[in-house]
Each structure stands twice: as structure tokens, then as C-alpha cells.
Amino acid sequence: MRRGVVAAGHRLTAQAAAEILAEGGNAFDAALAGIAMASVAEPVLSSLGGGGFLMARRANGETALYDFFVETPLRRRPASEAPIEAIVADFGPATQEFHIGLGTTATPGQVPGMFAIHKELGTLPVARLFAPAIAAAREGMRLSRFQAYLFGVIAPILTASTSARATFAPDGKLLGEGDVLKNVGLAETLERLAEEGESLFIDGEIGQAICAQAHAEGGHLTEADLTGYRVAKRDPLSWHYSGAELFLNPPPAASGPLIAYGLGVLEALEDGPPDTLHLYRALAATNDARRRHGEGLADRLREAALADEFAQLATHPPAYRGTTHISIIDGEGNAAAVSLSNGEGNGHMVGDHGFMLNNMLGEEDLSPDGIGQWREGVRLSSMMAPTIVCEADGTVTALGTGGSNRIRTAILQVALNLVEHGMDLEQAVCAPRMHVEKSGVLSYEPGLDMGAALDEAAESHAWPERNLFFGGVHAARRHPDGLLEGAGDPRRGGDSVIV
């Protein structure tokens, strides 16, 4: 009997989760092993100082969303006491300004999230689940091409401080493809976490180090932020489309309602399977709905309650940052979809503990009145979209992606490929995609028959090949007969393992 399937953004992340499945752990045990390994193997996108979401579906059908995303601190220090530095990330074809420094760090939720998940869903000891990540951090791992590319993109962050350079540029030069990244401090932190539990990060030594660093170097975090943080367990947003039920990330996340809205528009437009014109109109309409925060949604959708979902988003500022994802389904049918983010990191390691806190407060969309003017004590909204799709025949798919504001469009299109076009999982993930920016620009990969969509778009951009711009959907699928499929998106260096 097969133990399960894993898809993730790095080979080591997938292998760590698969190792736990092979030993009899369930999908949620494997997810925790994957989260720990992602902090080692994918440090640009995931960290113990960040946050995320788990969409968990038990084999009996019970489904819940665990929200352990970041929150704004309870008190904002004056701007003069919380310096923020602008850096330029170089993506090659384009550049983007990010903001770093202790003043950009929101209250992290990843560690409390891991222990809340383990308490409710785990079966194996935490020490066993963290063991693969501990070994990789201590022994070192060779940087993949994709991770080396990300290192190059945010080089100013990874070399912003002496502590960061010691890990990511130990010989004075930023590590590149094939170089060994070793992080003994992170290995020791994970070992202590397994022994001492989450209190280590709340009022224990590391929690104290986080607060002391913030106090001394211009951050906002205090003991009250760490002790007051709570993981939220929410009912998913359920949406029906073409005979399938999708379990989506609910508010305050923005992703789930927007995906549901896009599917609702497609249903209203369809007079047959959706083509690129229908998809273009749905994506453009969803952008408009996002701007209006719910105005008129009740008239556009059959389920008017979705208008209330959008209205909630206005009170939770959105964070669009670097993200990675892990999807797992075990042999019993338990499914886990986990999305994680650290922003890009604030540029400063926490003591000698081997990790960097997030820079989520450096997001311009959080502070329309200027960087650093965010609302206090608010769980941030997110575009992260861990999703589970249940088809009429009993097939279950767990999926998610990185990709900032392209997350929802990537998830929507892969879901359509599965439930509407009948593709197998790898075809659905690798098929060409399109995206409509808020500005109205229509971007698309080669292989799509764009036809009338190009005539309707005010401006378009044809990409020469598949690109990480369009997300990286890592997905796991289980059919009623027990057949398993896994697909790691090549756009973002994904990998999958069946055990």
C-alpha cells in the first residue's frame, strides 16, 4: 500500500515529508516535517520568523483552516526609533523596491502554528518530525539553481548585516548554485524547539532575544506581542464549481473569496467550457471586485454572502510577499495544503539562532499613508491560498502556490484544468497560464490560444517561456481507487515524491 504523496518547492522539503509518511506518519506529521525543512532549504521564502496557513482535511471529510500568519505589533514605535531601509531586488528583467530592518517585522506565527497543528493533528514526536531538517541544517545542503537565483534577487537583504553575511556570504561572497549552505544555529534552534516546545519562542531564550533585538535596534516587537499571539482555526470558505467543492482560505485572507469570485464570474459567462476570453474577463472582473471590496458582489454571484466576505477584507491590510507551498495526501486520505512566507526577511539574524525575522511591515500596501503607518494589533490579510478540491467521484487534490498577487490566478487556472478540462495533475500544473494585473495588462505564457482576449485587453505582454512570475503550484492528488499523483511546478523548482 502506498503511504502517500508530497509536492513541494524544494527536493529536500518533499523528501523530509515523504520520509515521515514512509515511517507511518500522517499527512499532518509530514507537513510539519516539511515546514521545518523549508526553513532550512528555502530560507528566502520560509522561516521560523514568518507565518502561514494550513488547510487540513481529515480522511473523514472534516476540513479546517489553521491561520498562523503574522500580525501587526500591539504598539508602534515612533518612526525616528524604528529605522526602515529601502533596498532594490533585481529580478533580471525588472527590479522591485523592498523595505527591511527591524522596523519592518510583524509578530511571527510560524512556531505557534507548528505546535498547534501538532497538538491537534500530529501522531509522531516533534523531535522525529524535525530530525530531517536538523540534519540538513547541520550537515549543509547544496543550493539549487532556483534557490541560488532567489539569493541573487535579494542579495542586499542577505548581506545587509554582519549576522546575515555570516550565514549567506560566509567567505565574503554570496553563496551561489552548488555552494553548501550550512546553518548550525538553526539546527540547534530546531533541536531546542523539539525539547522545550513553543515557549522557547514566546517567553524563553529565543523569545527574549527577539524582544531584546527589537528594543535595541529599532523593532516594534515586545513580550506582549509574542505571548498574546494566537493561532486561529477557521472554517474554510466552501465553493462549488462544475461538480467539485473547493475549500478555500477564508477572510481575513483575501485569496479564497477572490478565487471563488472568479469561479462565480466564469459560471455566469460560460456557454461551454471556459476559453481564454472567458478567463480574461473573469480575472479582470476579480481585480475590479478587489478594488471595490465587495460593492455589488451580491448582484454578481448566486451566493450573496460572499459580499460580506469581501467587506471584511477592507479591515485587514493585504500582504503580498514571497511564498512557498507544500501539498501532502497520505494513504488514508488525509490531505494537507501548507503555504508559508517570511516576506523576504528583515536583513538581521536573531542572535546565533540561525533564522531571520520577517519584513512584512515593509509592504507599501499596508501603509497607504506611508511606510511604517500600519494599524496596530491586526492579523494581516494574505493572498496565500492553500486549497483542497474534492471532485464528485471522490478525487481529492491539495494545492497551493507562491507568486504574490498571481497566487489566486494560478490556483484558479489549475483547478479549472483539473475539474473542467479533465487534465491529469502534471498536465494541469504545467499547462500555460495567464494573468491580468491591476493595471489591466494581460500577461500570458506561450501555448495559449489567446484569440479574442488580446482584442479585448488594453495592453498585453507575451512571455517567451514558462516563468515563475505565473506562480509555482505544487499539488498532490488521490483518486478513489487509491491512485496517487504529485506535481512540483518546474516554474519554481518544485519536486514531488510518492512513497
TrEMBL record:
<keyword id="KW-0808">Transferase</keyword>
<dbReference type="Pfam" id="PF01019">
    <property type="entry name" value="G_glu_transpept"/>
</dbReference>
<dbReference type="InterPro" id="IPR051792">
    <property type="entry name" value="GGT_bact"/>
</dbReference>
<keyword id="KW-0865">Zymogen</keyword>
<comment type="similarity">
    <text>Belongs to the gamma-glutamyltransferase family.</text>
</comment>
<dbReference type="InterPro" id="IPR029055">
    <property type="entry name" value="Ntn_hydrolases_N"/>
</dbReference>
<protein>
    <submittedName>
        <fullName>Gamma-glutamyltransferase family protein</fullName>
    </submittedName>
</protein>
<dbReference type="InterPro" id="IPR043137">
    <property type="entry name" value="GGT_ssub_C"/>
</dbReference>
<keyword id="KW-0378">Hydrolase</keyword>
